[in-house]
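Here is the promised in-class demo. Please do not try to memorize the tokens; focus on the logic of going from shape to residues.
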């Protein structure tokens, strides 16, 4: 159990970073299989999230706001929205989801460049 608030916050920052960066790299026009994979990923992220109370609350949010997996922009906007729901619960500042565009840049080569390696 992560009973330590500092560790819990650190885990949260790392998890959100991965979560939003995953959305930022999701295809603009995903195949059905890609959308299905993202949906599973989100549900498993919730189910296996190491902080139990966080996972429980996030599960309620997934019921209320089902994952949007039809495109990169839909997924990114959805993730921003659910993170804001967590922010609200923890009395944190709201993030302006209109500014999510280039915020999560992984610095990865794009797919075309990957093929050249
Ligand atoms: P974080 O909320 O960790 O955000 C990190 C950075 O992301 C911010 O500095 C900002 O640059 C950016 N950001 C902020 N909001 C958004 C947004 N809406 N969209 C995109 N980017 C944004 N902690 C608890 O104490 N109790 C809980 O129940 C709990 N549940 C959680 C559930 C999940 C699924 C996750 C991933 C984390 C949870 N946490 C919980 C941790 C909590 O959300 C924070 O990660 C932690 O408190 C550290 O907060 P922070 O202020 O550093 O910023």
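The designed amino acids, position by position:
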């Amino acid at each position: 159990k992560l009973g330590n608030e500092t560790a819990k916050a650190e885990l949260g920052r790392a998890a959100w970073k991965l979560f939003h960066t995953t959305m930022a790299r999701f295809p603009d026009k995903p195949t059905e299989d890609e959308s299905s994979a993202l949906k599973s990923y989100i549900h498993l992220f919730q189910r296996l999230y190491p902080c139990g109370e966080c996972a429980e609350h996030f599960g309620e949010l997934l019921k209320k706001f089902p994952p949007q997996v039809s495109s990169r922009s839909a997924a990114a906007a959805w993730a921003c929205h659910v993170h804001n729901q967590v922010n609200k619960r923890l009395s944190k500042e709201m993030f302006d989801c209109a500014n999510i565009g280039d915020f999560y840049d992984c610095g990865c080569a794009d797919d075309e460049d990957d093929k050249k390696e």
